[in-house]
Amino acid sequence: MAAAKRIASSLIARSLSTSSRSFLLRRGDAALGIQRFGTAAAFEEQPIKPSVQINHTQLLINGNFVDSASGKTFPTLDPRTGEVIAHVAEGDAEDVNRAVAAARKAFDEGPWPRMTAYERSRILLRAADLIEKHNDEISALESWDSGKPYEQSALAEIPLVVRLMRYYAGWADKIHGLVVPADGPHHVQVLHEPIGVAGQIIPWNFPLVMFAWKVGPALACGNAIVIKTAEQTPLSALYVARLFHEAGLPDGVLNVISGFGPTAGAALASHMDVDKLAFTGSTATGKVVLELAARSNLKPVTLELGGKSPMIILEDADIDNAVELAHFALFFNQGQCCCAGSRTFVHERIYDEFVEKSKARALRRVVGDPFRKGVEQGPQIDNEQFNKILRYIKLGKDSGASLVTGGDRLGSKGFYIQPTIFSDVQDDMVIAQDEIFGPVQTILKFNNLDEVIRRANASRYGLAAGLFTNNMDHANTLMRALKVGTIWINCFDVFDAALPFGGFKMSGQGREKGIDSLKAYLQVKSVVTALKNPAWL
Ligand SMILES: NC(=O)c1ccc[n+]([C@@H]2O[C@H](COP(=O)([O-])OP(=O)(O)OC[C@H]3O[C@@H](n4cnc5c(N)ncnc54)[C@H](O)[C@@H]3O)[C@@H](O)[C@H]2O)c1
């Protein structure tokens, strides 16, 4: 367990630590009951039954679990098999109306924005404690619904959620405005007030982490919320939202709608009584919700969208460590990361060795049932993503890139895909431009710093980048030249609660986490009071 803990925290919260991550490679596979992709002769597994009960499948409106107004439900599926886990209430426009009305009332008349900031902080702290206490059940729901390894949920993602809630609990009583000096006889105050009812729409790749990034800062500022979860992963947010109520959150402050984008999501984005919209998802949908917000009441919108992030390996790199880091940067979470290092740029001097070693690492990748100990990669989220990834793999083959390893599905059941690598990838190939959102690494060759800066920036996206080098001068040049919202140097996927995260260009607008996220949930009000006498008598 200690070793598993080490690997999971290094996976997401720390910089590269090859020694901790490679513990999987030192243990006997048979003892762990695991299959490596490169050695799995037949990939057929009886799915392990998760040890959790599904208690919440209804919508959460005004503190109560309720059926959808239409009475409709939709199935949420197990990515390991494609079979139904549970039928979940399907919210649509009418349910969004009910939820927004509850949030409106909670904000306009309820105790939440009026209680002291310290009291709000204590409720968030209690919620964090409860999430921590129920880590096992929440992680089981998260992995069952999304297909991500249970160890990743339990040892990395749910702890990140807890940490983030505590971070924002710490902010609740430190949010304040300013008194500024005025030219005339005026007392000038700048007040920071909660923005009101926040509409939030989240994706399926990190269901609860995305929930936390949105709910934490909004609650710390005293807002009320209607959040729409992704249709692929509705379960964990319902469980956790109940814990917030157990922690003392007043009814109506946090409403959770399960349902589909064009119905429930669009209703939320275009609702006249929603004061702010926060969206995470694809760039294409980001454009849609921005338009809906503009056409309705011009609510301010923050957008966290897609990416095609460069992972740049300079020639001075220790190749073994670079291979491990680049592997992690792409394959983590089945390759379903907005910030995945999905364009691996490698200096030509070390290129061939890097490709060979990357292939060996991909062949050692442990793919299998996410509930099996030691598994690094589970199935993709659903049939649609599975087919989309296989289409991109075919496009890669057809476009003349060299298929180094993988290139097909794994097994005959569920949505497992072989860890796949293409080398000799050119910038104009579709696989080097589009977000594949799957376990497909594309390796490109470069010759010098100016060239790699130009090519790395030649993307419609600008979410993140990784660098691997010991040369400080080169690192300094690159960190300033790359047009991205986050740069990880000799590490990747470090998601500290205090770090603002967001994109340049078509990767989004605004930032989440850190202080920046608070700004998106506050209104700024200037108050000028005439003084009988000049200021500062
Ligand atoms: N930048 C980030 O922080 C970040 C984080 C995670 C994921 N992402 C991005 O999310 C994408 C993957 O997620 P996805 O496939 O769920 O994206 P998606 O855009 O299909 O869906 C995201 C959410 O939007 C909803 N939605 C869909 N159509 C809608 C509409 N017409 N109106 C309102 N809501 C609608 C969906 O139901 C879902 O809840 C990737 O592009 C990934 O890069 C970005």
UniProtKB/TrEMBL annotation:
Residues 65-527 form the Aldehyde dehydrogenase domain. Transmembrane segments: none annotated. One of its GO terms (cellular component) is mitochondrion. The active site is at 304. One of its GO terms (biological process) is carboxylic acid metabolic process. It is an enzyme of class 1 (oxidoreductase). Its EC number is 1.2.1.3. It holds the Pfam family Aldedh. Keywords: NAD, Oxidoreductase. It comes from the Eukaryota. GO terms for molecular function: aldehyde dehydrogenase (NAD+) activity. InterPro entries: Ald_DH/histidinol_DH (IPR016161), Ald_DH_C (IPR016163), Ald_DH_CS_CYS (IPR016160), Ald_DH_CS_GLU (IPR029510), Ald_DH_N (IPR016162), Aldehyde_DH_dom (IPR015590). Belongs to the aldehyde dehydrogenase family. This is Aldehyde dehydrogenase 2B4. It comes from Crocus sativus. The lineage of its organism: Eukaryota, Viridiplantae, Streptophyta, Embryophyta, Tracheophyta. The gene is ALDH2B4.
